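fyi for ur records
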Amino acid sequence: MKNEVKLARIKIGLTQQQLADAVGITRQTISLIEKGKYNPSLKLCLQICYAVHASLDEIFWIHEEDFK
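which gave:
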């Protein structure tokens, strides 16, 4: 799933490890999420959003045309 996790993380100056620690997952999982190779649960999406001070639609929104 395409997302803006990496941009949001960098914008506030967090490393992958710091974000992973903040939400209780591994750095490797953050890497996979940023690459779009792992689809996090809604709960994890929200935890990431809170950690990077962004809304769900800013980080994980998918436009309808992206499904086609």
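The CA atoms of residues 8 and 29 lie 16 Å apart. thats all i got for now
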